[in-house]
Give the backbone structure.
Amino acid sequence: MKLLLKRPAITVFIIYALTLITLDYCGFFAPEKQSLLLNLVNSKTDVNIEGKIISDPEPVKNGKRFIFQTSQVNGKTISEKILVNCPAAYNVSYGDVLALEGRLKIPLQAPLPLLFNYRTYLARENIYTTFDVKYFEFITSKPSFIKKYALLIQKDISNKFDAYFSKKCAEILKPIIVGDKSSLEKETRDNFIDAGLMHILVVSGLNVAYVSVIFLFLFKLLGFSLKKAYLLCIPFLFLYALITGAQPPVMRAVIMFSCMLISLALDREPLIYNSLALSALLILIAQPQQLFGASFQMSYIATIGIVYFYSKIMTLFQSVNNPILKFLCETFAVTLSAQILLIPICMYYFGKISLISFVSNIIIVPAIGIMLALGIIFYFLTFISRIPAEGLAYVISLITQAVIFLTEFFAQFKYAAINVAKPDIIKMTLYFLFAFSLFSFKDKKRFLFSGLILSAGFIYAKAAQPRDAVNVYKSPYITTTHTIKNGNHSFLIENKARYDNKYYAKSFEEFLRYSAIKKADIKAVGFSKETAEKIVNATKSL
């Protein structure tokens, strides 16, 4: 309680977060209450829209995709974000003001609970409809001056990587340094996921921390005092965020680091929890629904884990004096501190735990800092002379190839990542309480509190066994009836579409895995023989 009174940002954040959770529970953020365009989705006629492109168009299969801020819809003033799909031949860019004609659609929804729901994901970004373009007319261009040139810098850096590096190296360097994942292959992405390293391909807190250190070192080298260096670093962090696309993870990190740097410049203790709460509050005031996104939650929970557990874990390595061993111990402590609190979050959102990440992060993460620093130097060298730029590119290529090799090595282990059932909120809460009790109390109290929490967990797990029920899950053309009786599960899956839905088999298998259902009586109707067999035998592959 004293902490809350002394740290008003934490108090305000908690109150605000609880308010948002209450509003969400009451349906305030439901798409039908937030979107006016949903009323036009079922219209059999085309919709005419005017507005501006507010994101950098990205290439997708058979076309381009971008976020469009509407200003006029069928002659009426409506301001709303939509996700637009257009042919690849359309020459459009960030800031273009367009008149579009086409059909509004509702984003795809998961056919079963517990699965990733694309519609909900977009809704949390305040996007409730998609739009397929049939015709467009260019009106004018009104880009934000700063963002326009930031995106031009991003494209120029990506082009330089393509020119100086092999395709494989450029594929890794672009997302790490400027957040450009357009050329990232599925195989590469899967390898990084299985090795527990996908976070390094997303510009976030790790990248911002490295960039902060690079610019602080540069300003000190130029003779600025430490206080001035702290303040001068802030605009460059925001510029870096814009260059990388100003995605939520990097913006969160930049705001948090900026709060800490301002505290340091004012000779105030950088109260990390207060800075975390203040940065989260600023983000949620602008975009309230980010509170419910996996990215937001994982960013802050990982940071809290590092801040809280790191020093406690490092006490185990007090006797280590060798600089190299100490560095490895520190990297391990950071990784473990973050993973302690991330484990249940990863289970909840992805149904997967990476077992190899503790080892892979110790080796790979330090290399990312080197790649980022050398990558920035390389870019500036390309404007001075090609020969030194090529020499540095060779060095960066060696490091990148080593990262790729090690990532593939870690990913090939059979149990690098294991699939698990998704926990509910109560189980996750008990886990967090157990983790904090192990590190917060000493001697008898530690065993007493952790023992009580474990006991509560076992009691809840026993009481939470599924009761007799009939659940019906409806999606376009497919109805799934799930019956639970005496602990036994049975499914009747009816496909009423005229075509065979081959993708449902994989979705159904994921649902069974996330639900911890290993045995069930399954009947599939309306599918091809091959797809029906996959559905009926889904439990055998778990």
The CA atoms of residues 56 and 94 lie 5 Å apart. The domain at 36-143 is CATH 2.40.50.140 (OB fold (Dihydrolipoamide Acetyltransferase, E2P)). The mean pLDDT is 86.
